[in-house]
Amino acid sequence: MSASRIGQILPSRSVSVLKGGNVWFFGGGAQDPAGYLVSGVRSMLIPSQLSPFPPQNIARSGVSERRRGLAQEKMTENGVFSRDKVLTIDTMNPTVKNVEYAVRGPIVQRAMQIEKELREGVKKPFTEVIKANIGDAHAMGQQPITFFRQVLALCSYPELLNENMFPEDAKNRARRILQACGGGSVGAYSASQGIDCVRQDVARYIERRDGGVPCDPDNVYLTTGASDGIVTMLKLLVCGEGASRTGVMISIPQYPLYSAALAELGAVQVNYYLNEEKCWSMDLSELESSLAEARKHCNPKALCIINPGNPTGQVQSRQCIEGVIRFAAKERLFLMADEVYQDNVYAEGCQFHSFKKVLFELGPEYSDNVELASFHSTSKCYMGECGFRGGYMEVINMDAEVQAQLSKLVSVRLCPPVPGQALMDLVVNSPQPGEPSHITFMKALGQAPDMFYCMKLLEETGICLVPGSGFGQKDGTYHFRMTILPPTDKLKILLAKVKEFHQKFTQQYS
Amino acid sequence: MSASRIGQILPSRSVSVLKGGNVWFFGGGAQDPAGYLVSGVRSMLIPSQLSPFPPQNIARSGVSERRRGLAQEKMTENGVFSRDKVLTIDTMNPTVKNVEYAVRGPIVQRAMQIEKELREGVKKPFTEVIKANIGDAHAMGQQPITFFRQVLALCSYPELLNENMFPEDAKNRARRILQACGGGSVGAYSASQGIDCVRQDVARYIERRDGGVPCDPDNVYLTTGASDGIVTMLKLLVCGEGASRTGVMISIPQYPLYSAALAELGAVQVNYYLNEEKCWSMDLSELESSLAEARKHCNPKALCIINPGNPTGQVQSRQCIEGVIRFAAKERLFLMADEVYQDNVYAEGCQFHSFKKVLFELGPEYSDNVELASFHSTSKCYMGECGFRGGYMEVINMDAEVQAQLSKLVSVRLCPPVPGQALMDLVVNSPQPGEPSHITFMKALGQAPDMFYCMKLLEETGICLVPGSGFGQKDGTYHFRMTILPPTDKLKILLAKVKEFHQKFTQQYS
């Protein structure tokens, strides 16, 4: 072994290559300082105080007889031995590596870099980055609803209840929420399932929404945003190995939370494609063929639907939902209905139908049997309060024993954030008539290309979109997803920029 | 097959047993209504409109040739066929079933029932339930810190910035937090890792706490309470199957979040026992023997320490921590230091030493190598703000690729609750001198028995504790865990009651 070869293994500062090939180096063997023979090198002394690391992995080097773990040791800048980590990309949980989340992926990371570059004075063909990659209404300048924020301020600092500056209805709402909190403080843990009176309000809201279909507050679970509820439900569902591994059907395109959660749980992602030619509608024949194919290699147990769609923005017809429910009943699939955009329907002639309502209209053969979990959030709708991480899920026809397990599972995380629960209450128990409210719009456009297109668009215009590949799309088709939350003025500029870019792009690359 | 045998399978209302053995029943075959022959029963007609459920499971009955899935169908009260669920205790994720969480287990559930019974006028030998099962300071009447709540109210409803009722320092703090929020609103999503300026404040806090040991804000992740961070770290660590399955060393007694999370992740829980005879201290020899034993059947990769201890309340000496770090280095274990009670140390002569500080004092061989994640929370300390679900974790010496995976993983849940982030900022960037603050005390007592004892105590006195078995204890020893957050007056009553009960109990059962 030459000195330079040793130098690669043993960083220079701690290695003295002596005449005759003697090498002294620091490292290894805290408990048993000793000399080890490295082939071609006579001896090494390992002073114990500098060497916390014991013999371990012997398999990594071609050196025949050597200090175990030697190749794992590297010299850091300040001349100290550094060793391979316990937790590395090779030893970490492989399911986490499979997780992808396009909404905050490389395009968004580059956008943040560009923002930094702009702040540092780097010249760009634009002066600001416009983020249309995520449905974050307030970040785009939407103002919060006054009533909601008044109640939240009162809950945070109840001394304000003594002030005259707040309307009585806001005070009453705050008093009611505080009374339901342990010690009258939003700083106390709530019940793990959520504050009782909030769950009752959610149940009444659901009943109103669904024309009187009953809702039991015991079936309502408050969550840390809808994501939390969705992941919790998937966690209950997923089991088995190999061909009996749980499969979960998700739309393509989908919101990437689903693919990310399924990857993390090691479940089989079963894709069904939305029909772009028919405004991204769901085809039963596609569901059937997707399921038949999936059954060859896994055990499909659940069907996820995002309605109104994300990123596609389609609103399912009542007839379509009925078909999906019949399909789930026939094929024995647990239904998961992501309905967080239920209040974001604006197109003329379009109407939101909840899966639960349609389920009950199909009669007791369905309403007594089909298992359904439905999800909602404070982050979307007209309030767009993303930062509070409020949400709920309702479970219908869940097996009682499973529901007990669900209740146990959510208790491990103690409770969802209480301010988010309070906000959920305000959303479902909406402010007095006359209170201002804004409907925000959330819809995705189905247009042309992908990562390259989006990166180029970002670099040239500062507009940050998400490539369609992060949501899934048919081979050979390309999309991007943009949220259209910026204020009208900004939106006009944004759209003009996109238009111009798009024309140039298609000219250049077609 | 006799009619009664059929009756067991086919609920009575829908079954007409005709002379000669004809049975007509409803159920099955939505897509292909057809007659099926049941052995000993001539024929069945399945009207399609009443039967959404197709042939499926054939294996559950002794009937030789029969409608597939028949045994899964039951009659509900309103005369409709109900079918076995898709998601049952047998088909659900088995790892979830293994989760146990004593802090909110059967004792607490019974306590909630008893509270309801009291409200309904049921006579008990007590008039209220005192909950000493969970560290929920505000629920026990502790008042929130005014300064914190003023800032939170200002953040929730920034119009209050124009009022004269708030001190300038509170306003300045709120302005700073709001400026760091998208669109100046706590209703916007933050960066997934947490708001930049909050992470910077956390980093400076850690540096002050640790006497100048540097902290990089990029290594700080804001979390939804400490639980979130702990589960996320465990998620990164766990992999492998059988004998190479990841093992995680946890203290016994432990805080049940650990056992629950490990069960859910399917990791191997490797117990090491705290030494009750030495005030629940950690013995290195116990660590060594526990690890040696574990290596026979799994791959131990991480060592979790709760310091100050929960439920045991011990505070580790500097010497002990040094030993643990040397042990982790020698044995190549990833260290997880749960330090949420770091500000709850009150015994004379006791001092909190952070694992990070001791790690750095051991010199670069350790500080450049040993991987450590440390956790903190807004729920404990003097503020006890549990409901906001604020917290952070700091990772040290984490492999860069793994840290990129961590950043990706946390992005899937978008962000921790922003009000909790704001609160974390206030905690680490504490109020101006002169601001009121209270130190709450959180310590567990190590005394006598278990579930029976606790249930009896609850039934007779209304005091709700947690049996030691939920945290783990040596065979043949019994403990309970109580939090001592009630105000002094109530605490005196509580302790007097416990004393009286205990004397009676030991008299009766010894």
TrEMBL record, chains A, B:
Its EC number is 2.6.1.2. Residues 164-422 form the Aminotransferase class I/classII large domain. InterPro entries: ALAT1/2-like, Aminotransferase_I/II_large, PyrdxlP-dep_Trfase, PyrdxlP-dep_Trfase_major, PyrdxlP-dep_Trfase_small. The keyword Ligase does not apply. Keywords: Aminotransferase, Pyridoxal phosphate, Transferase. Its cofactor is pyridoxal 5'-phosphate. It is an enzyme of class 2 (transferase). One of its GO terms (molecular function) is pyridoxal phosphate binding. Pathway: Amino-acid degradation; L-alanine degradation via transaminase pathway; pyruvate from L-alanine: step 1/1. GO terms for biological process: L-alanine catabolic process. It catalyses: L-alanine + 2-oxoglutarate = pyruvate + L-glutamate. Homodimer. Belongs to the class-I pyridoxal-phosphate-dependent aminotransferase family. Alanine aminotransferase subfamily. This is alanine transaminase. It comes from Oncorhynchus kisutch.
